[in-house]
Automatic annotation (TrEMBL):
PANTHER family: MULTIDRUG RESISTANCE PROTEIN MDTH, RESISTANCE PROTEIN MDTM, PUTATIVE-RELATED-RELATED. It is a multi-pass membrane protein. This is Major facilitator superfamily (MFS) profile domain-containing protein. Residues 203-214 have a biased composition (Gly residues). It is found in: Cell membrane.
Length: 433
């Protein structure tokens, strides 16, 4: 299992170790933050929830401008600075005593948090290289599920004796994890050698800003995802396909309570099936997405598995309890398979469709599609679709079908002019191969 889960590249293994630390710290924080600010600090729960929604908007908008900074000044430098900012910010949480301080700090941290994901994709691609890029991202995703579970369990153990000191310890451990991750990222780039540095220095000729004085050429207009219609369609399509995330995390517990005869205790069991299968599948799926054609095939398979999951969820609403449980388990398994197929395919295609000199901006835009469904998905699925009963799954199936067509149309890399028509399209510039 270890040999299939862990990448062969040393720099990639270091990044995976950093992801394990990151997700463990996140698990600690997720299990304790709201409880601390409501029960210890005394903030109204409704105000905390509103603040988190506002902060999510900051997280939605921050990746693109920070991606532009990374393209200009370097992905590693920007990522490390953001990690240090996050470490310092989370260390300040125990000092917060009022709503305004909580709101400001949470919005800043959400903005920094969401900007880090596309930058890590850029760094992983450079450190791992063409052959190991997708496998490295899959390994990172797998260990994140492991680390999150460890963090949640660890927080439960500590909070068995709740006190301000226990919460402070959790927050500080989480804060220190970000400084450790920053150090590991620098180590991974060093382990990868000089070949990893060029794509990480910044946009333009030789890693400097475009149009640098003395280059002998006039500054060229850098590509931007806002004017790239195909990439915008690809981003929107993948955001819609990512609704499986909200369906499994947010909708599933409500669905169990409102639409089935299952005991409420089955909800965490179904979620555990999802996380366990994700760890197993992320070790196996990347081998099928080694190029654009393989990734597009995975998108087609994603549509089939998500449709099967929707059909099984609809069927589970109409069956007796034990038959309903079997259908629900099958639905979660099918959705989880689609989730993992789609995540691997989207990493590959989003990278291939992003120009090297603006990769930070493009991948940041791509992440906005995924973040958008986290913002709007709960309202769409729980408030609008769930009251429709079994027809909700038919509507969701139709959305997945439309999004799949959009992703397949927009996610087809275009061969460069003059390329051999029989050759496989390869949009990667030479320095990124």
């Amino acid at each position: 299992m270890r040999q299939t889960l862990m990448p062969a590249n040393r720099g990639s293994r270091i990044l995976v170790a950093g992801a394990l630390i990151d997700s463990t710290g996140n698990g600690l924080f997720m299990a304790s933050a709201t409880l601390y600010f409501v029960s210890v600090v005394g903030l109204p729960a409704s105000r905390v929830a509103t603040t988190l929604s506002i902060a999510a908007v900051f997280g939605l908008l921050s990746p693109v401008p920070l991606g532009r900074v990374a393209d200009r000044h370097g992905a590693v430098r920007t990522y490390v600075l953001l990690m240090c900012l996050r470490g310092a910010g989370y260390a300040l949480y125990p000092l917060i005593t009022d709503l305004s301080g909580y709101a400001v700090l949470t919005c800043v941290l959400y903005a920094a948090d969401r900007a880090c994901s596309p930058l890590l994709q850029v760094i992983a691609a450079a450190v791992a290289g063409q052959q190991e890029r997708t496998r490295t991202l899959a390994s990172i995703r797998a260990v994140r599920n492991i680390g999150l579970s460890v963090g949640l369990l660890g927080a439960s153990a500590v909070l068995g004796f709740p006190s301000r000191a226990a919460f402070t310890t959790i927050f500080l451990v989480n804060a220190l994890s970000f400084f450790a991750i920053a150090a590991l990222v620098l180590w991974s780039v060093k382990a990868a050698g000089d070949s990893a540095l060029t794509p990480l220095k910044g946009a333009g000729n030789g890693g400097g800003p475009q149009g640098h004085a003395g280059s002998g050429s006039p500054p060229s207009r850098a590509p931007t995802p806002f004017r790239d219609v195909r990439f915008l369609v690809f981003t929107a399509s993948n955001g819609i396909l990512s609704l499986y995330d909200t369906a499994l995390i947010v909708l599933l517990p409500v669905w169990v309570i409102q639409r089935t005869d299952l005991a409420h205790a089955w909800s965490p069991v179904l979620l555990t099936v999802n996380t366990t299968l994700t760890v197993l599948l992320q070790a196996a799926v990347p081998r099928f997405a080694k190029d654009a054609q393989g990734a597009r095939r995975l998108v087609k398979c994603t549509a089939l598995t998500l449709a099967a999951g929707c059909a099984l969820f609809a069927l589970a609403e109409e069956l007796p309890m034990w038959a309903s449980l079997v259908a629900a388990l099958g639905a979660v398994a099918a959705m989880t398979l689609g989730e993992n197929l789609h995540s691997v395919a989207s990493w590959e295609l989003s990278y291939l469709l992003s120009p090297a000199e603006a990769r930070g901006q493009y991948l940041a835009m791509f992440s906005m599609g995924i973040t958008s469904q986290k913002v709007f998905g709960p309202v769409l699925l729980v408030s609008l679709l769930l009251p429709l009963g079994p027809w909700a799954w038919v509507v969701l199936m139709a959305l997945f079908a439309v999004a799949t067509l959009g992703a397949l149309w927009s996610g087809k890399p275009t061969p460069s002019p003059g390329a051999d028509e029989a050759a496989t399209p390869d949009p990667l510039p030479s320095e990124a191969r």
